[in-house]
Amino acid sequence: MTADLHNLYQSVVLDHNKNPRNFGKPGDFSLTAEGFNPLCGDHYHVFVKKSSSDDSLETICFEGQGCAISKASASLMTQIMKGKNLTEFNDIFISFQKMVTGKGCDERSKELLGKLRVFEEVWKYPSRVKCAALPWHTLKAALSGTLSTTTEA
Ligand code: ZN
């Protein structure tokens, strides 16, 4: 990766860390879960409201605290998943897991992941992989009706 691109990626993470999108508990939600990464101390709640007409995610918000990587991952996740349905969530979830664990990204995954590719090199820092993945596991837990999850499960 060129230095410029690296800086761009870093600035996306810093921006979302400083100004997380969809941050805070919404007044109306139907599903929630708590996620904890004891290795880093990242701790978040995710809140979801499904659309009444189909199974798309109408609202996704999060609150809590943790490192810049985990917070930026949660913030980008809420942006990207808004309006998506469960099938789309699973596709993106699997692609994201592959990317952050260094198992590679095919062209379709790259397209699906979009801005999430800021985490493309996270696999080089094994202690950070769980930070990036935590919000996703938390959202998955919420969608499956599990109330809490931890990266050490
Ligand atoms: Zn962390």
Description of the molecule:
46% of the residues lie in helices and 18% in strands. The protein has five helices and four strands, in the order H-E-E-E-H-H-H-H-E. Strands 3-2-1-4 form a four-stranded mixed β-sheet, with helices on one face. Helix 1 packs across helix 2 (68-81) and helix 3 (86-100) runs antiparallel to helix 5. It starts with a helix and ends with a strand. The mean pLDDT is 92. The protein binds zinc ion. Zinc ion (ZN) is lined by residues 37, 40, 42, 66-67, 69-70, 131. The site of zinc ion has 8 residues, from helix 2.
Strand content: 15-25%
Category from helices, strands and their pairing = alpha+beta
User: Helix coverage percent of residues?
Assistant: 40-55%
Q: So how many helices?
A: 5
Query: How would you spell out the order of helices and strands?
Result: HEEEHHHHE
What is the averaged pLDDT score?
Answer: 92
Radius of gyration: 14 Å
Q: Which ranges are low-confidence, i.e. pLDDT below 50, for 5 or more consecutive residues?
A: none
Q: What is the 3D form? A: globular
**Strand arrangement, major sheet:** 3-2-1-4
Small-molecule binders = zinc ion
Distance between the termini: 33 Å
The major beta sheet can be summarized as: 4 strands, mixed
Report the strand count.
Answer: 4
Précis, in short:
The chain has 153 residues and is an alpha+beta fold. It has helices spanning 3-18, 68-81, 86-100, 107-113, 126-143, and strands at residues 31-37, 42-50, 57-65, 148-150.
